[in-house]
Amino acid sequence: MIDFNLSTTQLAMIWAFAGLICIIPLFRVCKLQKFVVVPVVFLAIYLSFVTNLDFIGKPYYKTPDKFLYKHHTVETIDSTKWITLWAMVDKRDSLYRFQWNKKDEEQLKRAQKRSKQGTPQVGEFKKKGKGKKFQPGGELEIYDFPYQEQIPKLTQ
């Protein structure tokens, strides 16, 4: 079964338009149209890459400010340990990759265990140091999802 979503439809329309532009010079003799073909094909290729990148995504090499925990992995890439975090930030799933440290891994393992038990986990990287300026890899704090703050009771 074919699953069409916005990205698939966009790609199909880009390539249909580019194909149409490329076929026109076969039926017309105008030299100007032949010069239009190459830029249109390059534009279609560029738009395809941009659409695929938006559709597939890539990890951000930074720490998120505040997030809803989904999953994490620890991997070694070029002899450097990295944590890849799958999190929901601003109602959007995102991947974040940042350098490993023992404390962050322990916090994320605890969050993974609590998530598997059914308790959503919220995390944030707190500012550290003098003046509380945010530094990449600030102190990671993970806590249970605050239902009372996010979904207050209706009072009648």
> Mean pLDDT, as a whole number?
79
Low-confidence stretches: none
Category from helices, strands and their pairing = alpha+beta
Using only CA atoms, what is the Rg?
A: 24 Å
Strand content: 25-35%
- Domains counted in the coordinates: how many? 2
What characteristic shape results from the CA principal axes?
A: elongated
Number of helices: 4
Major sheet: size, sense and barrel closure? 5 strands, antiparallel
Q: What's the end-to-end separation, in Å?
A: 49 Å
Record field, number of beta strands: 5
- The spatial strand order of the largest sheet comes to 3-2-1-4-5
Fraction in helix: 40-55%
Topology pattern, helix = H, strand = E: HHEEEHEEH
Task: Walk me through what this model shows.
- The chain has 156 residues and is α+β, with helices and mostly antiparallel strands.
- The chain contains four helices and five strands.
- The chain has two domains: 6-56; 66-150, no CATH class.
- Strands 3-2-1-4-5 form a five-stranded antiparallel β-sheet, with helices on one face.
- Helix 1 packs antiparallel against helix 2.
- The radius of gyration is 24 Å and the shape is elongated.
- The mean pLDDT is 79.
